[in-house]
Amino acid sequence: METLSATILLNFHVNFVSMKNKVILLFYFMTIISVKGFSQNYILWWEDEFDGNSVNTSNWSLETGDGCPSLCGWGNNELEWYQPQNAEVNNGRLIITAKEESVGGKDYTSARMKSKSKVEFTYGKVEARIKMPTGQGMWPAFWMLFADPVNGGWPMDGEIDIVELVGHDNDKIYGTIHYGAAWPNNKQYGGSYKLASGTFASSFHTFSVIWDSSKIRWFVDSTLYFTADHADVFPYDWPFNKDFYILLNCAVGGDWPGSPNASTVFPQTMEVKWVRVYKKANMVSVPTIDGPDPVKVDLSSNPMGGSGRIYVESNVNRSATIQITDINGRVIFNHSVQLDSGSWHSLDMENVTPGAYLLTLTGSDFTWTEKIIRK
């Protein structure tokens, strides 16, 4: 599936309900029509299409070094020095380049980027479209780590490897979870997928997980090849029930792939067309917001056409701001309004490019946000 046509129709009703001086945001989902090319009522929650001129630092942090002093060789005896300049955005693709060059006492350089503290979430469908590097010693990965160490850190708090490949075996990929007790009593459980023909370095493929409270499922180009659930980690706890963040990197060398040799050709590239996170419609977050007065909010439609309306009903008069931002954080609509009982406020979407946006309604004592689609 090369692209997703976002033709989901989602009608919902939102209430701020006062309860013990808290305002609770409640969602009532009325009608959901299937998304073209996609199933199970998922909606796009976040994406990076790599359509700019550089890595979007609102989404990603680029790491530098070899993991020292706390985790030299990144815990795997890797041989590269990570540096930001090895990650470029060009022609609608993220390009991570592994090079043979001496930096920081290492013989190779590459890039590693993470969404920690920028894009963190619990559950959903997480996928990327990637063309892999090849050759002895290459070790690209698209994976996730826990946002906060509530159980003591790695591996007790979990790791989800959406896809890994070792370059000498470039027609086979792996999906794995890491869990258990502290090293050396850490555990892992995973599966693999082998192409019938060709290699993962010759063309792009879509690598995905669908992650929910009961299990994680791994896919290549929409083909399910592995599942892990609570029973598979017993007697250890299932740590995959909290926020995780995304990582993309291309390691050189390490315990698993081994070192490059005379057959390895440099430079090697890991190319990524996009990374996307979808949420089930009934998994939209329900935040608790401080505030003494109830507010009711409705959208006229979602997705929206050239114009839309937001209905706000407040028991007391108050000022607020309606703002729409794109996935890169650029403000495309910002309007101050007076909230009165039963008032409609228009959203001018006529010149807005179709896609996913964040709608935020902010008052002196509350903030409400929702993902909207411009169709």
Describe this structure in words.
The structure is a single chain. The chain has 375 residues and is an all-beta fold. The chain has one helix at 230-233; strands at 9-19, 22-33, 42-48, 61-62, 80-82, 87-90, 93-103, 106-110, 112-114, 120-121, 124-131, 138-146, 159-164, 172-180, 186-194, 205-211, 215-220, 223-229, 244-252, 268-280, 288-290, 295-299, 307-314, 318-326, 331-339, 343-348, 355-363, 367-374. The strands form 4 sheets. Strands 3, 5, 6, 7, 8, 11, 16, 17, 18 and 20 form a 10-stranded mixed sheet that branches. Strands 4, 9, 10, 12, 13, 14, 15 and 19 form an 8-stranded antiparallel sheet that branches. A 6-stranded antiparallel sheet has the order 21-2-1-22-23-26, with no helix packed on it. The longest helix is centred in the middle third of the chain and has 4 residues, at 230-233. The protein starts with 8 loop residues before the first strand and ends with a strand. Residues 1-39 and 283-291 have low confidence and may be disordered.
Tell me the layout of helices and strands.
Blueprint: E1 9-19, E2 22-33, E3 42-48, E4 61-62, E5 80-82, E6 87-90, E7 93-103, E8 106-110, E9 112-114, E10 120-121, E11 124-131, E12 138-146, E13 159-164, E14 172-180, E15 186-194, E16 205-211, E17 215-220, E18 223-229, H1 230-233, E19 244-252, E20 268-280, E21 288-290, E22 295-299, E23 307-314, E24 318-326, E25 331-339, E26 343-348, E27 355-363, E28 367-374
Parallel strand pairs: 5-8
Antiparallel strand pairs: 1-2, 1-22, 2-21, 3-20, 4-9, 6-7, 7-8, 7-20, 9-19, 10-19, 11-16, 11-20, 12-13, 12-19, 13-14, 14-15, 16-17, 17-18, 22-23, 23-26, 24-25, 24-27, 27-28
